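Quick one before lunch.
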Amino acid sequence: MSDKKTSNQMWGGRFASGPAAIMEAINASISFDRKLYAQDIRGSIAHSEMLAQTGIISAADQEKIAHGLNTILKEIEAGTFEFSTRLEDIHMNVEARLADLIGSAAGRLHTARSRNDQVAVDLRLWVKDECFRVAEALKGLIGALLERAGEHAATVMPGFTHMQAAQPVTFGHHCMAYVEMFSRDLSRVRDAIERMDESPLGAAALAGTSFPIDRHQTARALGFREPMRNSLDSVSDRDFALEFLAMAAICATHLSRLAEEIIIWSTPQFGFIRLSDSFSTGSSIMPQKKNPDAAELVRGKTGRINGHLVGLLTVMKGMPLTYGKDMQEDKESVFDAAETLDLMLAAMTGMVSDMTVNAAAMKKAAGSGHATATDLADWLVRTLGLPFREAHHVTGRAVALAEDKKVSLEKLALEDLQSINPGITSDIFSVLAVQNSVKSRTSFGGTAPSEVRKQIRAWKKRIAKA
Ligand code: ARG
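Model of the arginine complex:
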């Protein structure tokens, strides 16, 4: 590589000596933005083709440029490319190597372009690709949840509020709540793709260019819907990165909530599920233990992603238009959030698919804590015509009586119940059993197995098309 000169060869004309070591250290981004090599080369090839077609450079030079760039692509992928910190970033590393390979024609590539629109297009392409990856991973996770929901559409478990057993629900219904959440993430990522699908290339440094470029052509060639309409906005906008991070943070938050539930459910105290050996670890000292490390890491890694969102929001909040070097700080947050989210989604999909559900333990817990008290109250309203408040009061007395007798509500004798309200008949027992309780909740979106199955069918169709 030709980075032996003391002053930077890209803008060395004005600079007498090379940068101080500290300057080089704070300025260089090559250690992380090398990740953008494929997008950078793709962008440059599209730009050179457009320059040739508009007659700004010759076809012969364009051919040399494209050939050289493809050679560089191969070198990077083979691991033989020598990245140089002196050359600061991926853009200048590639361009310097191009000069080594093809000589003076390399200097024509940067016509009607700046690193400002170059980096904006590179990162956009990268984030857009990542969004498609996340969409696929989300579909995988949703598919796994739909499977489990189908198996357990009628498996009764306690539904919780305040982490206290509230009313019986089905495990299928609980899984479907996460299907709703992850489907919103999927629609968020699709919306984000829609908005980021515009090309900043050709905005040049900030003001556009006097060369007769065709921004529509480069936009099309790079798979964007259209070019961005304002050159200042093109180089200064990082909304696409922020939207990606915001989507990632919300999705990670959903993953973290599910991870938390998995951790609770897999404790010996709950015993609702058992994680497979592939997604848990043993303890080096306590042989009886099986720890939900993957779930804990999903919960823990959410902190990093949320941090990256706040980090980039903070970088951007003080940026006057247009570009400032602050914006170089956009990449590490995006890259780390992407890598982390991909891993979290894969681990969660694995855990959900592999876990064993202990339906008996769930059912037992669903019946404890007088979980069908609301069903009793509803029965009093429906059958005896009591106002709900009065029914609530009668039910409270029944619960107190059950506690006195140390039995669950459904185990109270009919005479006991009649001592509280003489109108109660044996029909009451049809709603006090947990299975009947869930079966009766047939309101739209309710936990009745029939309703849950309807939702599963609808989502399977939607996801197949998504
Ligand atoms: N490495 C820079 C970044 O990531 C590229 C753009 C540099 N532009 C500039 N005017 N210094 O932001």
